[in-house]
Structures are given as C-alpha cells and as structure tokens.
Amino acid sequence: MESTATRVLATVASGVLGLLIGSFLNVVVYRLPRGESVVHPPSHCTVCQAQLGALENIPVVSWLALGGRCMHCRAPISPRYPVVELLTGALFAGLALALPDVAPLASLDAVLAGVLATVLVDLDGLEVPPSLGWLTLVAAATLIAVSVATSDLGRLGWAGIDAGAAIAACGLHIGAGRGTPSGRAAALASSAAWGFAAGWVAQGGGLAIGVVWALLALAGWLRGDGGRRGMVAAAGAVSVATIVAGAIATR
Ligand SMILES: [Zn+2]
Predict the structure, then answer these.
(1) In Å, what is the CA distance from 6 to each residue of 2, 3, 35, 105?
(2) Considering the entire predicted model, what is its pTM?
(3) Whole-angstrom distance, CA of residue 157 vs CA of residue 137
(4) How far is the CA of 174 from the centre of ligand 1 (A)?
(5) What is the CA radius of gyration of the chain?
C-alpha cells in the first residue's frame, strides 16, 4: 500500500487525465463511426467549421465559459460534451481512489475509456466500429502484464472465465439480432475485453455482463428486434458498474 500522499496525487492526476481523455472521446465518438481521422483536422465547430483554439478546448470549463455555444457562430454545443468529460474524469479519479493498488490503474482507465466510447457510439444509433472493440481488448490484455509484474496470476483465471462467459452470452445476443458482420465483430471483441477486465477486478464480475447479454438476447428473440440501438450501451454500462463496484469491494 502506498502513502496517502501518493494516493491523493494519483487520484487528482487521474481525474485531470480523465477530463482530457473524455474530451478526446467526444472527438472519437463523433469521427470514428463516420470513418474520419481522430487526429486530423484539429477540433472544429461542426456547424461553422471554425477551428477551436486552446482556450475553447479546455474540458468542461470552456463549455461553461461560452454558455454552451460556439464562440464563432453561437450555435449551441450539446451538454453531452462536458457531461462525458466530467464522467470520464470522475470514473478515472474514483478508480484511483478505490483500487487497493494503483498497478492496474492505467489498464483499467484505458478499458473504461473504450467502454465509454462504445456506449456513446451505440447511443448515437451508429454502428460500433470493430477497431474500437479491438483497441479495448488490447487495453484489457495489458492486465496480463500487470498480473505478471505483481505476481497475482490468480486473477487471470477469473478474467479468462469471465471473458468466455461474456463472449458466449454475446454470441446469443448476436444470434438473436440482425447486426452486420462488422457490428458483430465489434460486439464480440468488446465483450471479450469487458468480461476480461471485469473478471480481473471482481472475480466473477464478467458473469454480470454475460447475464445482461443473455437477457438482451432473450428480449431480442421475444420481440424479433435484437439489433436495436441501446443494447450494446446497456451491456457497456453494466461493465463500467462492475469494474467500479469490484474495485470498491476489493479495497
Ligand atoms: Zn460554430
């Protein structure tokens, strides 16, 4: 266990990093499903195309200072932008505070960022790009290195079991829906990543995700509309809740 000072520093730094990552997620969520580059062009107003200066890009603060409007054309900017930034900051800080050890913090932050992006794309009614699922899976896989470094290999067994459960249940959901091949690949890769991370933090935690997928599959079969928007988001929300609850419970 680290000193209190280390913990406070890690929490504050994680919160600030979360605000910045949240700001980046807003860009990713808008551009990735539309096949646009996430780095080029620089942030701009989607209405008047004016490029945003550094002062217009400060998470939460800029939105509040500008009254939720573009500085150039005064078009309203959705409150979702600062909400996503605040949520990401709060999750990163909360995880830094709750985890018994900061070793897996970076890996879990990366997984949470991937889950949030996936949830938001789904809520927008757009298809989740497989690349987002694969990136989240890579983030989850870095927990293997954390386990090796901290000689805590027991967690990997649960992580594997929970990933398997989440994948299997997601398979049911996919079987019930009418998704495209790339949408299915994204859902399976995401499930593997979410189940692995949830199982790593909260042994058996991925089973919660599996249960949600199975219930969604059942609902899809009963209603004949398994491909409806919001389903991936529901499973993602449970993943975030499981990871956070697991971190708090194991403290
Ligand atoms: Zn504008």
Answers:
(1) 6, 5, 41, 13
(2) 0.92
(3) 17
(4) 40
(5) 19
pLDDT tens-digit series, residues 71-108: 999 999 999 999 999 999 999 999 999 998 889 999 99
Give Cβ neighbours of residue 118 (< 8 Å, ≥ 6 apart).
128, 132, 133, 136, 186, 190, 232, 233, 236
Mean pLDDT for 27-48 is: 90
> CA-CA distance, 136 to 116, in Å (whole number)?
10
Per DSSP, the three-state class of 44 is: strand
Reported as a single tens digit per residue, the pLDDT across 192-227 is: 999 999 999 988 888 888 888 788 777 777 776 655
Distance CA 174, CA 193 (A): 17
Name 127's Cβ contacts closer than 8 Å, sequence gap at least 6.
33, 121, 179, 180, 182, 183, 186
- Using the mean position of ligand 1's atoms as its centre, give its distance from the Cα of residue 71 in Å: 7
d(CA 134, CA 113): 13
Cα–ligand 1 centroid distance for 53 (angstroms): 12
